[in-house]
Amino acid sequence: MILSSGVPQDIFRAILQGTPPGAVYALIALGFVLTYKTSGVFNLAFGAQAYVSAAMFFKARTEWDWPIVPALILSVFILAPLVGLILERFIFRHLRTASSVSKLVVSIGLTVAMPALFDLIASFTAVAGRTPSGIISGGNSVFYDPFGVYPFSRDELAQLVVAVVAMLGLGALFRFTAMGLKVRAVVESPRMAELNRIDANRVSAFSWALSSFFAGMAGVLIAPRFNTLVAPDFFGLVVVAVAAAAVGKLISLPRALIGGLGLGIFIALFNTFLPTWSKTLTWLAPIQDNITPAVPFLLLFGIFVFWPAIRKAPTASDPMAGVDPPPPADLAFARSRFLAIGTWVFGVVFLTTCFAVVFLRGDQFWVFVVTQAVVMSMIFLSVTVITGFAGQISLCQGAFAAIGGFTVFQLASRYGFSVLGAAFIGAALAAVVGAILALPVRRLGGVWLAIATLAFAFFFDAVVVKFSWVGGGSLLQGTRVPRPSLGPFDFANDKTFLALSLVMFIIVAVIVIQLRQGTFGRTLRAIQGSEVAAQSIGIAPARVRVVAFAVSAFIAGLGGAMLSISQKNVNYANNFSPTAALFWLVLVVSLSARTVGGAAQAGGAFALFDAIILRGAFLGWILGGADRIPGLFPISPKWRFVLFGLTAVQYAKHPEGMLEYGTRKSNAKVDAWLVRRGWATPRSGGPVPPDATASIDDPDPPIGLDPSARADAPIEAQR
Amino acid sequence: MRMRTRLLFALLAVAFVAAACSNSGSSTSTPSSNANPGTTAVAGDRNEKVSISGVPGVTDSAINYAVVGTKTNNPLGTCILDCYADGVKAYFDYQNSEFNGIYGRQLEVNQVLDDELGQNQARSIEVISGGKDFGVFVATLVAAGFVDLNDAGVPTYNWGIHATEVAGRLNIFPSTPAPCANCTTRTGSYLLKQTGLKKVASLGYGVSENSKVCAAGRRDSFEKYAGVTGAEVAYFNDDLAFGLPNGIGPEVTAMKNAGVQFISTCMDLNGMKTLAQELQRQGMTDVVLDHPNTYNQAFVAEAGGIFDGDFVTPGFRPFEATPNESQAKFVEYMKKGGNEVSELAMTGWINATVAVNGLLLAGPSFTRQSVIDATNSQVEDTVGGLLPPIDWTRQHTPPTQDNPAGGGKFDCFAPVKVENGKFATVAPADKPFICWPNTTRDWSEPQPMSFDAN
Question: Is the same domain home to A648 and A676?
Answer without folding.
Answer: no
